[in-house]
Automatic annotation (TrEMBL):
GO terms for cellular component: cytoplasm; nucleus. It catalyses: S-hexadecanoyl-L-cysteinyl-[protein] + H2O = L-cysteinyl-[protein] + hexadecanoate + H(+). Keywords: Cytoplasm, Fatty acid metabolism, Hydrolase, Lipid metabolism, Methyltransferase, Nucleus, S-adenosyl-L-methionine, Serine esterase, Transferase. It comes from Rhizopogon vesiculosus. It is an enzyme of class 3 (hydrolase). InterPro entries: AB_hydrolase_fold, LYPA1-2/EST-like, MT_TRM10-typ, MT_TRM10-typ_sf, PLipase/COase/thioEstase. Residues 57-266 form the SAM-dependent MTase TRM10-type domain. This is Acyl-protein thioesterase 1. CDD domains: SPOUT_Trm10-like.
Length: 897
């Protein structure tokens, strides 16, 4: 093997682990296939010696010919818009397994029909093996929906010229109250082609009811009472169960032979019930193995659950628990040397708009990945059903868990291990001089600089220091105190005197270097909120030592100690009988502290409004308090509206315009400065971007809430939270008038672009959240929303965009005569809690069902109608969503010339 050159970048420890794991999997895969081949050869030799022909030869000779079952199966692929890209990829794999199972079966169904094939599912299939699915035998691929079975296409169902009867179609859905007791020849069974992890309830059932066809569920509960997990199966599993029933006419045998063993949770499985030859998908097998490995790490080998204490880290699963206790036991081989000075970090990405960051340092001998698992809830066995994990309760927070550098530790007999600084002795007892615990001031300052560099990276990414918390466990807690309360004296290059953070968290930690700490304190230290938790039974970093540290900070440095969550000073909390670990109550207290110092802000002002706006490579043109020229068409009352806005000028010839409205609490300048928008604008050089700012208005739902300012920039009012649609809102004059005022403002921007020479058809109106909602009404609505007589038919725009929005007006909204020809791109996150996915989907469905606008998945990019797409994010814009928007704009506003 050729050795890498000296200048090549070495792999981090985490990358080495991934590479080693991939190599092991590949090796196991090769070994398994070799064993399978050898087993097949052995069986063939045994059959040959017994005078039995090879099954493949018997089939050719007629001994085992396929006997088709005269029924058809339809895979309904009409859910493309409800899946993320990852789910679409998973679905296409399931389709391949489905076809393969039918082709290999001795009793196959006469035909497989795949309906509503378009959008991302079709693109994914086209990209695999040069559209190899088109060569599958006994299959049909329709762009139309499954209703073509009984509507107008009899020839495609078998060539006999007879139209299939609606009564012969059965939609299989787990939500049906009817059980499918047997399969009948001549019938057609529909399986919903969706991979959604059971996210959508009654979806297939409602589709069957809308089509007025029969529906039924597989009788799993009747035959498999021990299936304690959810009874939702993949597409290929449902199909293989049907195949197995046709072969055996036995539901119980069909279920046992197809349903993966992991779904039985080890309660019933026997060698007779589940054949040894059953093979799960490779990815599922690996998931099972990961679960087994994690269970072995979490569950102790002796004792019962009742003997286990509640503390999270005392569950013997987190290596953070043993950071100090097991030092003597650990060996050098446990921790491979780090070859790069660049520290790797485990990360928990935010699921909502990223507005805050927590940097959490592990203890001695540990690694960031351990605490990532603790915080994400992977090791929890006490959480109640429905109870949120810490990241779920703080969806706007990004978590960074850096790995400490490798260095010799005196207390571990000079062995090299992950450590933020050297320690002379363990355990740390109250009688010890804090200055004598360690003397490696250089490595301590280097570690502070590591955390500082991570803070600087977050600041450059747009997160201000006032929205960053540093924290840590044990040795990491000591490091966090030095980083968060220390000034320039703790750092090797960066300045700390002006870096005031949102807060500090110390779990089972202590104050390092008493004398030096006092001389290196930052000027703002007294005003920083500190959460400090410690167990009274800690035998590694003694509880008394933590108390002494807090007393020193209070008496010598003047930092207050109190019981107010999130207030400046130290909130010191004790946990009875907790050892050198963490517990559920401490995690709850930690979450409450973080909610106080870095609260959610997606509704009370966009996260972008807090960012520093220094973007020298992309300076937007700022137009403050300017008035859009509108004298040609609009009356004086509209021309006098003060419209503050920001523009991003096109880099090429200006031939098209996008007007993009922000969400509640944001403004045009901050919205224009976000990374996603700037990247998109740079990819479409012929488009001018306009970001108008909404007027300030009183938000009804926020009145009396001390956490929010009721006066905020918004296109319309929020009457209550959580956000819902109600017909009663449309009868409130103030609510409707506010929407009409915003429509007039956006009308003025559109007219201004038309006056400058850009045709209506070369203008796209869109927005995020509230901005998307007001864009739908402005771009698709008629003249009752305007005071302009010559606009009775509304605009004829190049397109409308709604990201994370909804339709706030329904009964009083009348679409313009051009709305049915207007392309609409509508994207929404399935994890959105601010504007729920359900509210958004109901709005899109309303447009289609009640107002005659076609809606659904993408068939052709930018065609008329509503293209509704789902993404795996919360209340913000997904990367894949921005790519889809780029393709939409490229189609709606193509580059001319």
């Amino acid at each position: 093997m050729e050795l890498p050159e000296e200048h090549s970048q070495p792999l981090s420890k985490k990358a080495q682990k991934r590479a080693a794991k991939a190599a092991r999997l590949q090796e196991q895969k090769s070994e398994r296939r070799a064993r399978e081949k050898e087993a097949k050869k052995r069986k063939r030799r045994e059959r040959a010696q017994a005078g039995d022909a090879d099954p493949r030869k018997r089939r050719k000779m007629g001994g085992q010919d396929q006997i088709p079952f005269a029924a058809q199966v339809v895979i309904d692929l009409g859910f493309d818009h409800m899946m993320t890209d990852k789910e679409v990829t998973s679905l296409t794999s399931q389709l391949a397994y489905t076809y393969s199972a039918n082709r290999r079966s001795l009793t196959p169904f006469t035909s497989l029909i795949f309906t509503s094939l378009n959008g991302r599912t079709k693109s994914r299939l086209d990209a695999i093996n040069d559209a190899g699915y088109r060569r599958w035998t006994n299959t049909k691929w329709w762009e139309e929906g499954y209703d073509q079975i009984w509507v107008c296409n009899p020839d495609s169902l078998g060539g006999d010229g007879s139209e299939a009867r609606r009564a012969s179609v059965v939609y299989l859905t787990a939500d049906s109250e009817e059980e499918l007791m047997e399969l009948k020849e001549g019938e057609i069974y529909v399986i919903g082609g969706i991979c959604d992890h059971n996210r959508y309830k009654n979806l297939c059932l409602e589709k069957a009811q809308t089509s007025s066809i029969r529906h039924a569920r597989l009788p799993i509960g009747r035959y498999i009472a021990s299936l304690t997990t959810r009874k939702v199966l993949t597409v290929n599993q449902v199909f293989e169960i049907l195949l197995k029933w046709v072969e055996t006419r036995d539901w119980e045998q069909a279920f046992w032979s197809v349903i993966p063993k992991r779904k039985f949770q080890g309660k019933v499985a026997s060698s007779e019930a589940i054949p040894d030859g059953e093979l799960l998908e490779e990815e599922e097998c690996q998931d099972d193995q990961d679960d087994i490995d994690r269970a072995q790490e979490v569950v102790p080998s002796e004792g019962s659950e009742e003997d286990l204490p509640l503390p999270l880290a005392s569950m013997l699963c987190s290596r953070g628990v043993h950071s100090f206790i097991s030092l003597v036991v650990r060996t050098l081989s446990t921790y491979p040397s780090r070859y790069s000075h660049q520290m790797s970090s485990a990360v928990i990405q935010p699921t909502a708009a990223h507005t805050a960051t927590v940097i959490f340092a592990h203890g001695l001998g540990d690694e960031g990945e351990s605490w990532r698992g603790v915080i994400s809830g992977e090791y929890e066995n006490y959480r109640k059903p429905g109870e949120l994990t810490i990241p779920a309760s703080l969806p706007h927070v990004k978590w960074v868990f850096p790995d400490a550098p490798q260095q010799k530790v005196t207390a571990n007999f000079g062995a090299r291990m992950p450590s933020w600084f050297d320690l002379f002795d363990i355990p740390l007892q109250p009688g010890q001089n804090l200055d004598k615990v360690f003397e490696d001031d250089e490595s301590m300052r280097n570690s502070v600089q590591i955390i500082d560099d991570l803070i600087e990276a977050e600041v450059k990414a747009g997160i201000p220091e006032s929205r960053i918390v540093v924290g840590g466990f044990s040795q990491g807690g000591a490091l966090s105190l030095a980083t968060g309360l220390g000034g320039n004296g703790w750092r090797t290059k960066s300045t700390g005197d002006e870096r005031k953070l949102a807060g500090i968290t110390v779990l089972s930690g202590w104050m390092p270097l008493k004398d030096k700490f006092q001389s290196r304190i930052a000027p703002y230290a007294k005003s920083v909120p500190v959460f400090w938790g410690h167990g009274t039974a800690d035998a590694v970093v003694y509880y008394k030592l933590a108390q002494m540290s807090v007393e020193f900070l209070q008496q010598q440095l003047g930092i207050s100690v109190h019981d107010q969550v999130g207030a400046p000073g130290i909130n010191f909390l004790s946990y009875e009988w907790m050892a050198h670990a963490s517990c559920k109550q401490e995690m709850n207290d930690l979450a409450a502290f973080l909610e106080s110092v870095i609260p959610k802000v997606w509704l009370n002002g966009s996260h972008r409004s807090m960012h520093a706006h220094s973007h020298p490579t992309w300076p937007p043109s700022l137009c403050l308090d300017s008035r859009v020229p509108s004298s040609k068409t609009f009356p004086l009352e509209m021309a006098s509206l003060p419209l503050t806005f920001v523009t991003i000028s096109p880099k090429a010839k200006h031939t098209a315009t996008v007007i993009f409205a922000h969400g509640l609490g944001d403004n045009g300048l901050d919205f224009s400065n976000n990374k996603e928008i700037r990247t998109l604008a740079s990819q479409l050089p012929h488009i001018k971007w306009i970001f108008p700012s909404a007027p300030e208005r009183t938000i009804t739902a926020w009145k009396g809430d001390p956490r929010r300012q009721s006066l905020s920039r918004g296109w319309l009012d929020y009457l209550r939270e959580p956000l819902v649609y109600s017909k009663e809102y449309e009868e409130i004059p103030e609510y409707v008038d506010g929407i009409m005022q915003s429509v007039k403002q956006l009308d003025a921007f559109i007219q201004s672009e038309i006056d400058s020479g850009i045709p209506e058809g070369r203008i796209v109106l869109g927005g995020f959240s509230q901005g998307g909602a007001i864009s739908l009404i402005t771009g698709l609505g008629r003249s009752q929303w305007r005071s302009v007589t010559d606009m009775k038919d509304g605009w004829k725009l190049g397109g409308v965009v709604c990201l994370g929005g909804w339709l706030p007006i329904r009964e009083k909204l009348h679409l313009s005569t051009h709305s049915s020809a207007t392309p609409v791109f509508w994207g929404h996150g399935v994890q959105d809690e601010a504007v729920t996915w359900q509210l958004s989907w109901e709005s899109a469905k309303f447009l289609g069902d009640k107002l005659g606008v076609r809606y659904g998945q993408y068939t052709k990019m930018g065609e008329p109608g509503v293209s509704f797409m789902s993404y795996g994010v919360a209340h913000w814009m997904a990367e894949s969503e921005m790519e889809d928007l780029r393709l939409f704009l490229k189609k709606a506003l193509p580059l001319e010339g």
